[in-house]
Amino acid sequence: MKILVVEDEPKTGDYLKQGLTEAGFVTDLARDGWDGLEMAKANPYDLLILDVMLPGLNGWQVLEGLRRAGLDTPVLFLTARDQVEDRVKGLELGADDYLVKPFAFAELLARVRTLLRRGRGGLEPTVLKVADLELDLLRRRANRAGKKIDLTAKEFALLELLLRRQGEVLPRSLIASQVWDMNFDSDTNVIDVAVRRLRAKVDDGFEPRLIHTVRGMGYVLDDSER
């Protein structure tokens, strides 16, 4: 799942991005309201974590811009403003939750998972499946044929991408941008190594094999033999 953090305070923004990434979420960071709004409108985020006091547009204006654009992305306000009227204003504008700084990261993570579970009207699944493989996006768990699979954060994000687009051949450039947030360098084998390690965990000892290499094109996950 993909989260956008809009936070102008460098230490807080970097702390949130690192913590959410380590928790297994693909996390982007915007440093001001204008960038946050444009990124939120251009990308299908599952959740926004939004500060109120931002340069450019403030958090309330960003939220108003999102709702005017017809986007119902869940929003968690994270701010030092703890007056009741500020909370009420944010909720009336369409925010889904409100957490006051300073905060415990464990509480933030619990609220994030609750909002993601609630999702967009329950339209998006929280468990992805193919054959006997299951990926629980909220509990960050994977299993195949009832056997737990231990994944790193990057392996989890890679498997989530493959499952969300199962049956579709994904080029290395797309995998690099979506999972590693980088441009693909043809001289690096980081994608191939990561897929090989993931395949060893997901496919070794199981039938059918799910992760396939399409020579010269990329990788695909499906339950048909190739």
Q: If you compute it from the alpha carbons, what radius of gyration comes out, rounded to the nearest whole angstrom?
A: 19 Å
Low-confidence spans: pLDDT under 50, at least 5 residues?
none
Question: How many separate domains make up the residues?
Answer: 2
What's the level 1 CATH class of the largest domain?
Alpha Beta
Distance between the termini: 28 Å
Helix and strand pattern = EHEHEHEHEHEEEEHHHEE
Question: Any overview of this molecule?
Answer:
This protein is an alpha/beta fold and 226 residues long. It has helices at residues 10-22, 33-42, 59-68, 84-92, 105-118, 153-164, 172-179, 190-202, and strands at 2-6, 26-30, 47-50, 75-79, 97-100, 127-130, 133-136, 141-144, 147-149, 211-214, 218-221. The strands form three sheets. A five-stranded parallel β-sheet has the order 2-1-3-4-5, with helices on both faces. Strand 1, helix 1 (10-22) and strand 2 (26-30) form a beta-alpha-beta unit. It is elongated, with a radius of gyration of 19 Å. The two termini are 28 Å apart.
Short description:
The protein is of the alpha/beta class. The chain folds into two domains: about 1-120, Rossmann fold (3-Layer(aba) Sandwich); about 125-220, Winged helix-like DNA-binding domain superfamily/Winged helix DNA-binding domain (Arc Repressor Mutant, subunit A, Orthogonal Bundle), CATH 1.10.10. It is built from eight helices and eleven strands.
